[in-house]
Amino acid sequence: MTGRLLSTVTVGRWMSPEELQKMRDTGKVVQSTTGTTHVGYPANIDAFGKQAKPGTVYIEFDVPEKSLIKTNDEWAKIVGPDSLEGRLAKRKGLPVPEMPEVANIEIKAQKTTEGIMTVCKK
C-alpha cells in the first residue's frame, strides 16, 4: 500500500450470514462461486430484494471505486481471481484481479418469510 487513500464508493448486496461473517473476518469482498461478485451500485436495498432468499441480509459496504465494473445503471460487478477475466489474465501472464478490501460494513435489512425487515440504528 502506498499510503494514499483510494476513492471509495458504497455498494449493496444481499448475502448469507456466512458470507457476511467471512467478509468481516477477511476484510475483503467474498468471491462468488463464479469468481464474479455482483453488487448494487449505487447501493439500493430494492436491488434484487424480491429474489433474495429468506435468511439473507442486505449489507452496504465501501469498496475502492476502481474495483467496480459497471454493468448497468443499478449494478456493478467485482471480478476476482477465479472469474473469466481473472483466468484469462493468468493465462496471458497479466496481473490477476484480487478481491478488494471493504470498509464500513453495515447490515441494513434482513429477508424473512414475511418479507424485508429493515434494521434501525439507534
Please describe what this structure looks like:
The protein has one domain (8-118): ADP-ribosylation fold. A hairpin with a 2-residue loop joins strand 6 and strand 7. With 122 residues, it is of the alpha+beta class. It is built from two helices and seven strands, in the order E-H-E-E-E-E-H-E-E. Helices cover 16% and strands 34% of the residues. The strands form two sheets. The chain has a four-stranded antiparallel sheet. The model has no long low-confidence stretch (mean pLDDT 93). It has helices at residues 17-26, 84-92, and strands at residues 8-15, 36-40, 57-64, 69-70, 75-79, 103-112, 115-118.
Number of domains: 1
Broad CATH class: Alpha Beta
Number of strands: 7
Largest beta sheet, briefly? 4 strands, antiparallel
Q: Which strand order does the major sheet show?
A: 1-3-6-7
Proportion of residues in helical segments: 10-25%
Count of runs of 4 or more consecutive helical residues: 2
What is the overall silhouette? elongated
Protein name: Photorhabdus luminescens subsp. laumondii TTO1 complete genome segment 11/17
InterPro entries: TreTu_C
